[in-house]
Amino acid sequence: MRTAELRSKLIEQFNLVIQDDSKLVALDAIFDSMSTPESDSFVPEAHYKIVEERRRKWLNDKTTGLSWNEVKVQLKQKYDL
Questions:
Q1: Domain layout of the chain by residue ranges
Q2: At a CB cut-off of 8 Å and minimum separation 6, what does 63 contact?
Q3: 54 vs 20, 22, 27, 72, CA distance in Å?
Q4: Any residues with CB less than 8 A from the CB of 6 and at least 6 apart, and which?
Q5: Has residue 38 got a pLDDT over 80?
Q6: Segment (H or E) for 7
């Protein structure tokens, strides 16, 4: 599809969409997300460093983990479930 055809198609679809308020709000959010500067990640660099450190400790057997059943038991005890 050529640019002119695509532009015409999108204008027609846009005119239909803006008649519905809920779709208009969604479209506004899409435009907002397209116009904000892109970042490499939404996760702060400090969080990556924490994960790296924990992974390093785990790989060097400097830490232990819990089974899912152990985690469930601890959560039930903590929250009186």
A1: 3-35
A2: 54, 57
A3: 49, 44, 41, 21
A4: none
A5: no
A6: helix 3-17
Tens digit of each residue's pLDDT (9 = 90 or more) over 59-76: 898 888 888 999 999 999
pTM of the full structure: 0.37
Distance from C-alpha of 42 to C-alpha of 45, rounded to nearest angstrom: 9
Q: How confident is the model at residue 20 (pLDDT cuts 50, 70, 90)?
A: confident
C-alpha–C-alpha distance, residues 72 and 62, integer Å: 23
Proportion of the chain above pLDDT 70, given as a percent:
95
Q: What is the DSSP string of 29-68?
A: HHHHHHHSPP-S-SS-HHHHHHHHHHHHHHHTT-S----H
